[in-house]
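Protein: Microcin C transport system permease protein
Species: Desulfopila aestuarii DSM 18488
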Amino acid sequence: MLYYICKRLLLMIPTLIGVMLITFVVTQFVPGGPVEKLIAQMEGYNVTGGEVAAASSLYRGDAGINAERIESLKKLYGFDKPPVERFLIMMRNYLVFDFGESYYYKRGVAELVISRLPVSMSLGLWSFFIVYGVCIPLGIKKAVNDGSRFDVITSSAILVGYAIPGFVLGIALIVLFGGGSFWNIFPLRGLVSDDWSSMSIGMKILDYLWHMVLPITAGAVGSLAVMTMLTKNSFLEEIRKQYVLTARAKGLSENQVLYKHVFRNAIIPIITGFPGYFIASFFTGSLLIETIFSLDGMGLLAYQSVLNRDYPVVLGTLYFFTLIGLVSRLLSDLSYVVVDPRISFEDIDD
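Structure follows.
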């Protein structure tokens, strides 16, 4: 086991370097970088994002900015060094989690990410608990009542929810319950109200939960179908095995058969994804959900960083989230051994 873990940890190093190298190379060929954008702004062109690339031809001969000034701007952003040297410096800093400063926000990347995490954590964690809390019992009940009216109705409902994109559902919820054309029940902006700091503890909790209802509903509904059907099919596969017939023949009740024998085997493919999903829920963001409900989370930050060519944020967050993803994948693999003692990595180690 220890050998397997060490081997996986060592494999993370070239994987992480490869991801960062590919992304770094791509950023070198994307037109309209931070230097070009700053020059465009100095020249009086009100351009953002991809418009910089279209306007970049203005800087090559008749830009009005002398060569010395351009070189000083390149030095300011670190583009005066060769790409290989810049990549090595970047990776050296990333090893100690020094992600630099954002070009656009003029703040440290780590500080910027931490300021956006509460939104993404709220959306991710609540969606995580709702998906697992609803889908596992619902999937078990559907497996026990396979083919019944309950099974057909619930399957139809969750598949309809799965077919509706999250942003479409979000807009529909706003129209219905956010003061659009029908009822003005739920708030539409932010995690909390403007006067949240003056509320009592109980009112703060209620206000926070009230703000979370619509975005969490819009984000979680689409995930219910996958987890529910996975749970149902996993339990159905176990229920049809020979050991279940043997347990019933011994006179065990259906609940004893289901929860003492079937449950611990059927839950394995579901619970093994738990570590990765749980860790990812802290850091992932949804651009469309955050945009619709005016939430400044990681999804919106990532989109704005790419649009503004904010390379320190793009590369710094990519490094951190890739590292988190690799670790969560390792934890998911190790969870197989925890939930199923029959699985061992000894053969792999050999």
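Remarks: The longest helix spans residues 201-239.
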